Amino acid sequence: MKIFHFSDMHAGSKKHFREENMRHITKEINQGDYDLVIFSGDATNEGQRHEYEKASEMLDKIEVPLICIPGNHDARSGGIKLFEEYIGPQNGVHDLGEAVVIAVNSAVGDSNDGRVGRVKFNLLKEALNEHSEKPVKILAIHHHILPIPMSGRERNVLANAGDLLDLIQKADVDLVVSGHRHYPNVYDVDDTVFINAGTASSKKTRYGDVNSYCVIDIDETKKKVTTKRLNGKNTVSNFPRKTKKVFSDFGSREFRAIQMSNTFFSDSDSFLERHWNQAVKTIDSLDPNLLVHCGGIVKEGLPGNYDNAIRQLNKIDYPMVFTPAARDINYMGYHLFNRHFGELDQEFEQDEFFFQGLSTPQYDSSIGVMGDTEREALIQKMDDISYDFRCVFLHHNIVPIPHSREKGLLEDAGDLLRELVDSDIDLALTGTSYHPFATRVDGMVVVNVNSISSAYQRSRFGNSFNLIDIYQKSIVVSEVSSFWGKRRLLGIWER
Amino acid sequence: MVEFDISSLGILDDEKVVGIVTDSDLKKRALSAGKSPDDSIKDIMTSPPITVDVNSTIETVLDIMTRDQIKHVLVSERGEVIGITTLKDLKNLDLQELETLIARD
User: Fold this and answer.
1) pLDDT tens-digit map of A390-440
2) Residue from A128, A467, A489, A494 to probe the interface with B (highest B Cβ count within 10 Å)
3) Domain ranges within chain A, ordered by starting residue
């Protein structure tokens, strides 16, 4: 099956629309051997009637079956009604025999942010259930689900991206096609390929780039995505259709790390001391090489809380590294963290294993940031060292987490995620949003941890920490209940 | 089983899952039957394993577990084993409520 995917046309706008691009793209489509065309939103710039007239004139020239969804610009000025009039339905389930394409409108009127509301989320879930046996499952949604590089300060803009990501992974969706950020990007997340086509014909490109679209070839054995820039430069990404699901040979265990966050040491009720004490006993029995604390050490950066932290952490006899959350450095915290725990960016090495901490909180703000200068230095450092296994750990999220809003994401998550993946980092550990989650983005395993002993947590499994076992041939990530010591597998990946 | 803190293992023959062995198999068919640690796993495994399709409901799985008096059911997709679900997984659905009850005093 061969699919042509383009996005963000912005038709009819004198300031933004490049009509000659659409003429080129239409010719390309009609002369090619495509089975399907997907347009992933922003047909217009302001949702105006004259723009819709232009957009439909452009789309009518396409002689291949076409599926369109609206974007945030199409919902401006109440334009979503005109989308239905000129282009078609906002949502839809298209059964194409061997494939199903589910089109979901994520636009919110007069807002650049996106949302898939509760009713629509459930309809999507039902549609995926109903078509679960289709060999090819495709989701078309305008807003990106994973953060996109080169998108500056903007983070994820889809409010419930974490829940969608979780649903997509559970339903084993093959392709997710999006637009919105005007910068092309492709990721393989645990066998689902997320494609962002960039913009086909808007003058508003990012970082001086040219316009782009994608060609997707999908068959039984592979998914091939070609990002085509209009200057003739093509980038090809190949992904296998099936990866290993049955594991028999792990090799010997080389390293055992325990990941925790949000201990919340304090005299308040939100520090669950009984859970902490039970967890300490389980940690002893697991005998790890290293404990990684992903922030939220204390409830607030007050001297009494830090004294409590030192008392509680003295119960642990294993090497430990820390990275701060905003709560650890507020009030006197910036000084107390430094006095009791040392450097903000900590590191650990043992044999072939290297762990690098990235301090991301900002004073008096819940939004984390890495910053261009620090990110550049970090990537340089990680590229220069020669360990067999390289891990980074930070407090803020770099992929969206289920059951939480996108606000835990790092401000420049798009750039950091792309650069870590491109540098072949093996593992990234994060610790906010109070919910466990593990996945793999291209070759990098990304693991978020629930809170170990804070009353604030979101998982039905209860407070927990993560056990990360690194074998010669695989990485095994499990969640361990703080109170019960019961283990639950979050994922196994080949190294 | 000790390393991964699990109660069952799928048995492979040429990368295909041909059977399953659980901790109660080790108790009933190995220990109490006087088997030696060197005996083949073939003698104590359940083969072919009981398998449900990935699209089955929790209710179906519970029915099978009750009918066959088992705690482990393999999950397959298009004829290929992709996972396992256990009675404990189903019990875990209510673990949080239980914890709230016990942690309060």
Assistant:
1) 999 999 999 999 988 877 889 999 999 999 999 999 999 999 999 999 999
2) A489
3) 2-240, 253-494
In A161-211 the beta strands, taken as DSSP E runs, fall at 175-178, 185-189, 192-196
Same topology, domains A2-240 and A253-494? Answer is yes
d(CA A310, CA A304): 10
For residue A432, the Cα-to-chain-centroid distance in whole angstroms is 14
Other CB atoms closer than 10 Å to residue A385's CB: what's the count? 11
Indicate whether this complex's ipTM tops 0.90: no
Which of B55, B92, B96 is opposite residue A132, by nearest beta carbon? B55
Q: Do the chains contact at B96 and A129, CB–CB below 8 Å?
A: no
Reply yes or no on whether the pLDDT at B96 is more than 60: no
Q: Residue A51 is inside which H or E element, if any?
A: helix A49-60
- Across the interface, whether the CB atoms of A486 and B95 are under 8 A apart is answered yes
Is A459 within 8 Å of chain B by CB?
yes
The reply to whether residue A245 touches residue B80, judged by beta carbons under 8 angstroms, is yes
CATH of A253-494, one of 1.10.10.10, 3.40.710.10, 3.30.1330.90, 3.60.21.10: 3.60.21.10
> By CA distance, what is B14's nearest residue in A?
A248
Q: Is the pLDDT of residue B100 over 60?
A: no
Radius of gyration of chain B (CA): 16
Number of residue pairs across A and B with CB atoms under 8 Å? 44
A131 touches chain B (CB under 8 A): no
Fold (topology level) of A2-240 = Purple Acid Phosphatase; chain A, domain 2 (3.60.21)
